[in-house]
Amino acid sequence: MRRAGRRSMPLPIGPLAGGGVTGRRRLAVTAGVSAAVLASVASAASAGVFTGRALSESGLDHVRSLAAAPSGPGSPAAARYRPASRQTRADRTSCTSVGHIGDSLSVGMVSPEVLSDPAQRLAAQYRDVGVRRVRINASGGRSVVEQLPGQLNGYRVATGWYQAGFRGCWVFALGTNDAANVAVGSPVGLPARIQEMMFAAHGEPVMWVNAQTDVSSGPWSRANMRLWDSDLVATCAAYPNMRVFDWAAMVQPGWHLEDGIHYTAAAYAIRAHAIAHALAMAFPANGHHSACVVR
Q1: Which residue has better confidence, 97 or 73?
Q2: What is the largest CA-CA distance in the chain?
Q3: Cα–Cα distance for residue pair 267/174, rounded to 1 Å
Q4: pLDDT at position 9, please?
Q5: CB atoms within 10 A of CB 138
Q6: Would you call 199 exposed, middle or buried from its count of C-beta atoms within 10 A (0-12, 13-18, 19+)?
Q7: Average pLDDT, the chain
Q8: What are the C-alpha distances in Å from 10 to residues 140, 150, 243?
Q9: Hey, what long-range contacts does 249-256 have (CB within 8 A, 24 or more apart)?
């Protein structure tokens, strides 16, 4: 298992809850992770929680800061972005139902406090490419395995939806926190986390959104994100139902906030548009996309 090395700092995780491929068992809470540590992690790593219609106060603080950032056609981020033909043409997907599970990098795509125009938000973007039923759950600090207080991890959200009868295509916009958690010593490696979510999808079409940061060191570093992205592509060979949208290759200077992880409001609008159109490429209404990586 490749790992970016252990560091002498607390694991940025809550109670570990394993399932699926890594074993249906509850792992022990990491020693030394106090309530104060979890609180600081929730602030630094999550920066927002959106589940259903409710945002936490910390999430509201984050999205208010995003809303204050320039957005729209004249914003710095938008000025640097020139859509390729695939972002502008009327792509259509065979996915009529989509379940999207994400972390704080999905919060900005669904919050009206970040994107005041409903047409820019993720659900509307999915509908623009032919999705009729959209289910979204985004929670700050989320990973496949770890859980912050009051949160469900990605695996539990997916299995809960499947058990409740959801059938359709899945979009997993996870990995940023997984890469960080593994880097500081989580016993559950990167490939096992990917396999866990694929297990939860039960063979239905899955598109992963890969991870990217502008951080030079520490758990959320670019190097750790690249390890995760590499493992996503390597896992594709075992799952003919899996695609990987190469979001990391799209990100341009000026799209990040100062933390190097989260995005400006304009960049979140671009991200929502790009993910929906990538889904239409990954699982098109007409024809077939056989390659693992979608660009």
Answers
A1: 97
A2: 53
A3: 18
A4: 29
A5: 26
A6: middle
A7: 78
A8: 18, 20, 33
A9: 249/295, 250/274, 251/212, 251/214, 252/77, 252/80, 252/81, 253/80, 254/76, 254/77, 254/80, 255/77, 255/80, 256/213, 256/214
* Stretch among 59-68, 115-124, 202-211 having the lowest mean pLDDT: 59-68
- Over 80: is that where the pLDDT of 16 sits? no
Question: Is 7 within the bounds of a domain?
Answer: no
* Residue 30 predicted with pLDDT over 90: no
Range of the domain at 209: 20-294
For the chain, give me the number of helices (H) and strands (E)?
11, 8
Q: pTM (2 decimals)?
A: 0.76
H/E stretch holding 294 reads: strand 293-294
Give whole-number Cα distances, 215 to 37, 119, 292, 295, in Å: 21, 31, 27, 23
Q: Does residue 129 lie within any of the structural domains?
A: yes
- Supply the CATH number for residue 268's domain: 3.40.50.1110
**Structure confidence by residue, pLDDT tens digits, 197-216:** 999 999 999 999 999 999 99
In the structure encoding, which two tokens stand for residue 142, read together? 């989320």
Tokens, residue 85: 């033909």
Q: Is 76:112 a contact under the CB 8 Å cutoff? A: no
With 0-12 / 13-18 / 19 or more C-beta atoms within 10 angstroms meaning exposed / middle / buried, residue 86 is middle
